[in-house]
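A quick aside before the break. I want you to see a complete sequence-to-structure record at least once, exactly as it would be stored in a machine-readable document. Don't worry about memorizing anything.
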Amino acid sequence: MRGISVKKAAELVGGTLVGGAGEQEILGVVIDSRNVEEGFAFAALSGERVDGHSFVAKAFEMGAACCIVRHECPEAHGCQIVVSDVAKAMAKLAEEYRKTLNIPVIGITGSVGKTTAKEMVSAVLSQKYNVLKTDKNFNNELGVPLTIFRIEPEHEIAVIEMGISGFGEMSRLARMVRPTAAVYTLIGHAHLDALHDRTGVFKAKTEMLEYMRDDATVFLNADDDLLSTCDCRQNKVLYGLCDNADVKAENITPDGIGGVDCDIVSAERRIRVHIPFYGQHMVYAALEGAAVGLKFGLSDEHIANGIASYQTVGRRANVTDTGFITLVDDCYNANPDSVKCAVDSLTRLHGRKVCIFGDMLEMGEDKARLHADIGRYAAERGVSLMLCVGELSKNTCRAAEDISALHFQSNAELIQELPKLIEKGDAVLVKASHSMKLEEISEALKLLK
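That is the input. The structure line, written in C-alpha cells, reads:
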C-alpha cells in the first residue's frame, strides 16, 4: 500500500485523528498486531474473544504509523484514527485505495471452487505478469480489504477471491474491488439458510456486475444453467465442456492420482495441458485459467506451464497413496454440488470405493432431502461402502440403498471402527463441512496398515 498518509486516511474514513499530525505514509494495514511492520496501520477489531484495542500500545512499539480504533487508547502513544466502526473504516479505506490503482483486478466467485480458480488463474497469469492474489481463503469483508491493501506498485494484476453468505455482501465487496474482469465458477446449493435456493445464490453472486464497467469481461461456466444464460452488459466468455463454450476442454484422459490431461480449445488454438492434481473439477479450473490467460495475451506455452505449476491450498481434494489406501482428503468444505463432483472423481480411481461423509451445513429448509440425495447419488455411482457421521448425515446413510452404509455418533466412534472396515487398496473419500472436523478421520486413515 502506498500513497495515503495517516491524515488522509482519517479524512477518507471520516475518522478523528488524535495523537499527532499524521504526515507519515501508511505502508500496509493489518488486523493482527503480531504482523505490524514499520509504517503499517493496525486496525483494532473487537471480537468475541479478543479486543484489538488491548494491543494498540504494542502496535506502536513495533513501529505502527497509526492505529484505527473505536475509542482512543490514552496509554498508547501515536496517531490514532477514531471511528465508529473499525471494519467499516477498513472497507472504506480499501475502496479509496483501490481508486488509486490502475491495474487489472480479477474478481473470483461462485459456490464451489473459488480458491481453486483463484490459484489456477494466478498460476497461469504469473507466467507473464507480477500477480497479487488473495492469501489462503481471505475472501470475506475483512479478508478482501486486507488483500487490496497488499497491492504494491510492482504488481501488474490482482486476483481477488470474493465469498459471500447473504444478500448485499457481494455489493459491499465489489464496491471495494471494482473488478475489471470476473470469473464465475458455479452456482450451487450453498448458504441456503440465507439465500434460499440457487436462484437466490445467483442473484447474490451477480451483484458484482453492477460494480463493473461495460467493457469488463465476465468468464462464465457454460455448463451451469444459470451462468450460461446470464444476461449482462459486460463482455461474456463461456468456458466448459459443452459445444457452445468459447473455451472448451476436449480429449480428457481418465484422471487418477497423477492428474489429468486434456486439450484446451479456443477458436483456432488448441493447447495440450497437464493438470497435476486429481479430480474432474480440475478441468474446470484449468479452463478458467486458460480463458483468463487467453484474454490477457498469454502464449500457449505460458498457459500450459501455468496450469502445470498449479498448487492446491489446504485440505482440498488432496490425494495420498498411504501405502495401504488411496486417500482423498477433501474435508475443507462441502455442499451438494462439490460432494457429487468429488464422488464422480472418486469413481475414476482404482480400488473399492469408500465414502466417509459428514454434515453439509447452511443447507436451508431442504437440508434433509439434500443430504439424502447424496446417499442415493453415491450408491448409483458405484460406491461400495459409506460411513457417515453427524445428525444430518443420517439422511445420507438411510438413502444409500443396496450398499453397505453405517452411521456413527461421533468422529471418535467412526475412527475406532476404521481398522475393521477399511481394506488394503481401497479408494477413500473424506468430505464434509469444515466444522465437522473430519480431518481427524483423514489423519487416522493415514495410520492404517
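Two observations worth writing down. The chain has a mean pLDDT of 93. The radius of gyration is 24 Å. We'll return to this after the break.
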